[in-house]
Fold this protein.
Amino acid sequence: MRLGADAALTGGRGRAPDGLFCQDARHLSRWQLTVDGTAPAALVPATAEDDATATCVLTPEGTRDDPPAYTVFRRQGVAADTFTEHLRLVGNRPEPVTAHVELTVDADFADLFELRADDRTYAKPDAVRETCRTPEGLRFTYTRADWHARTELTSRPAPDAVRPGPTPTARVLSWHLPLDPHGAAELHLTVRAHPHGRPAHRPATGRPAAEAPEGRDGLALTCARGLADLDLLTVPATGVDGEQVAVPAAGIPWFLTLFGRDSLLTSCFLLPHRPETAAAVLSALAATQGERHDAFSGEQPGRIVHETRHGELAHFRQIPYGRYYGAVDATPLFLVLLHAHRHTTGDDRLAARLERHARRAVDWMLTDGGLEKHGYLVYTPDPNGLVNQNWKDSAGAICFRDGTQAEGPIAVCEAQGYAYDALLGTAELARHVWRDETYAARLEETAAALRARFTADFWLADADFPALALDGAGRQVDALASDAGHLLWSGILDVDRARRVGRRLLEPDFFSGWAIRTLAAGQRPYHPLSYHRGSAWPHDNAVIALGLARYGLADEVRRVADGLLAAAAHHGHRLPEVLAGYDRAATTAPVPYPHSCSPQAWAAATPLALRTALETAGAGGAARLG
């Protein structure tokens, strides 16, 4: 649910659309209150009590000599697919008065992808929107071919009248509420979204309470807030055997759905604390693993999905994101997490259950992924989807020092590290769980060869640092980027090079004082407000911190953790998705990135990864997550 500052919905689009959203559709687009014929004045503006409840205090018009006849105490709440409004009207006069309350309501059922920009339009042949009155309120329906969605509004008491509103489907509900002298009246409204394809009974996705770590220091507070945010972000999904599982969605407002890379890294960060999250994510991703070749969606046999969408435009294949597979890294990360889960829990059952899916993921890396043909995992920019298919997936993110975007097939450095880790981890599963020594030895040989050629091909001699990528001609994409820090986490670098890279990432051009930037300052393409060319991402720093800890760089781990925790303290101990790349000395608080999701899953899980990194570094390194 996204409301305006006055607790109203206006049907906005673009950067911050408002409404009640469910499964990538807006089920409530207008919600505007008037009292006695005018918009009420706010004595206390809308204030969030918590992530699910907001309150405000309103009055009808009045003057110093003729003060308002009554006051409206407004409380709004949101839960799974449901929005509630409670109005309590309190009379201020010694004689009875009657309050005239009106509410304009509409549901446009717009797809989320329509709303992300003001100028996006999609053809919707034969679509029908209707509104009908019910005994307790209204029902909004939307149909298009086999697509059916509805929104239901109930009111206690029922409205006295309903009349047409400003759009064909909008309605204005009216109540005349009598107030005794200094008396009160109440109005309760409930809006329930019924999206297309939603089962009648949904699995419970919440947890009784976030298990806050002991202590009240900054790390403990940020961990507790992160766990609470992850509870808020939990959504249902279907597992590999048809079971219902609860998985972390990527973020609010745009990414409230299962994402391959995001959910996998979030689960990695949580693994020592919530291993059941990893098991659920692995099962859900195995259930959506690629089966065939489909150029539109990027599906390939064995490939792990990048994102899933449930909206109308995805259903009718007007966008490729229903199940979109445009990620080069989700497949190796699937294997990394599967091994890490077994290593952390000591339980072989999940690895045995997903053996077929793991082998198919390895097959994808070797074939369509590019390891056998190109020597590396590669992707070709998708003109209808994602130009870049690593975690830095914005256009222009994989660039040379002069700012030129690399052309494909592109081999980004961190994906090669993930592949190396995936091959070694899967070899261990093959040897100890699947009892296939021949397969294990083959994977280990493949990993060793990848490591040897990676160092030879990616190392920038002049910078003493890994290249961001190799382009389609095999040239080193020479921008200095934070992706190199992921190589410490995966272990593909030798100890000496890894430690040099780790220390380089804490130099002032990389480290802002709050976090490590995505791109080192001073390079031509650097921009502190760019999505991936100068901003700083907490999850990126978490992966780097785990890598620093692996190589015993304890001072560097503490500097990264201290910067991120200081940034979190300025946001109520919640880490945002991304921060601007400005230096800490420039401002008293971190400069926010203007389009950052909050809360966001891998940012919420970052403090748990920092805790692991600090503990590992304190123990002398040499260990790794999982």
Summary: The chain has a mean pLDDT of 92. The two ends are 36 Å apart (CA to CA). Residues 437-458 form the longest helix (22 residues).
